[in-house]
Amino acid sequence: MTTYRICMLPGDGIGPEIAAEAVKVLEAIGSRFGVSFEVTEALLGGAAIDATGTALPDETLVAAKAADAVLLAAIGGPKWDTTDPEKPRPEQGLLGIRKALGLYANLRPVRVFDALKGASTLKPEALEGVDMLIVRELTGGLYFGPRARERDVEGAGAQGALGMRAYDTCVYAEFEIERIARVAFEAARTRRGRVHSVDKANVLESSRLWREVVHRVHEAEYPDVELVDQLVDNTAMQLIRYPAQFDVVLTENMFGDILSDEASMLTGSLGMLASASLGDGAALYEPSHGIAPDIAGQGVANPLAMLLSVELMLRHSFGMHEAADALAAAIEGVLADGWRTRDIADATTLPQRTVGTAAMGDLVAERI
Ligand code: IPM
Ligand code: MG
């Protein structure tokens, strides 16, 4: 029997609750498809800071590298929120592991389930035909460029006095743009053949290089794919004006972070948006949402983005397409039957079909 080794990083907030549902569903998939999943947990984020003083302990990195795939639930929380640059932050764990594993390509599929059209804040007719893939560059740009806080800078205080100044830098090298552009064009070939490359080339130098390189890769290697340049502010507007125009949305790190949260609302809830972070070696799968501190520990969080991340793992890391299809169909069936966690419930949801995290996981696992 094939055994897949998964490094599970439950993290903080609702993380451990939704991680448990992923394990439950993996067991169901294992028994139906005759494989086994060996899931080992490691610490990341706030949980790791509390236990070891650092958000990404060496042991975690070793475990992640040794695994066939990494599953991450969510990290962060008010407990570790600080603006002090000397203090550790949970996010350093996430950014550190993305960088250390070379996970430069973040894929965020935005799929609207028919049953959830009423849960979106947009009118159902605006959601007709929405099926897009956001391809977000994940290891460059503002998140990783030179940054600093400078003290006692002349003119930085009120009325020209000494004061503090801070900067972050958006840096992109040609090769980083080339490789993420290829990911987007390759994906478009298996979909509807269109890439929107999102930048701010009317203002930013890094965006002008982005646009040049994307066009070069397009002309040389993917002339069969349609390429549309779109400025990021326009994209933010188009996403809610006419989202069905998008097939693959290619963008740099920070724009992708912002636009994917926006796009998640097309699906009805941030709790529905999965992601795959791919590089040359290992891959990491995680929901796009955060730790939901307002509902952590209550057993009401939506585990579906986590389960949809498991679906992506089955496809991209293990080539288990039949199992991935079965999982997707199970989720679709559960939603079609009217079951909802409260974030995706609407006026038509029966109160007795509004369920918590574990019940939602049970429903999906039973269908598999
Ligand atoms: C995401 C998250 C992270 C990001 C945070 C938690 C560092 O918002 O994956 O979208 O900004 O990349
Ligand atoms: Mg984000």
Number of domain modules: 2
Strand order of the largest sheet: 2-1-3-12-11-4-5-10-8-9
What is Rg? 21 Å
What do we call the CATH topology of the largest domain?
Answer: Isopropylmalate Dehydrogenase
Q: Helical segment tally? A: 11
Listed once per kind, the bound small molecules are: 3-isopropylmalic acid, magnesium ion
Structural class: alpha/beta
Amount of helix = 25-40%
Order of helices and strands: EHEHHEHEEEEHEHEHEHEEHHH
Task: Specify the CATH class of the largest domain.
Answer: Alpha Beta
Q: Tell me, what's the shape?
A: globular
How would you characterize the largest beta sheet? 10 strands, mixed
How much of the sequence lies in strands comes to 15-25%
Parts with pLDDT < 50 across at least 5 consecutive residues: none
CATH superfamily of the largest domain: Isopropylmalate Dehydrogenase
Mean pLDDT across the residues is 96
Report on this model:
- By secondary structure, this protein is α/β, with parallel strands linked by helices.
- The protein folds into two domains: 1-104 and 271-368, Isopropylmalate Dehydrogenase (3-Layer(aba) Sandwich); 121-141 and 170-267, Rossmann fold (3-Layer(aba) Sandwich), CATH 3.40.50.
- It contains eleven helices and twelve strands.
- It has a ten-stranded mixed β-sheet with strand order 2-1-3-12-11-4-5-10-8-9, sandwiched between helices.
- The chain is globular, with a radius of gyration of 21 Å.
- The mean pLDDT is 96.
- Magnesium ion binds at residues 257, 261.
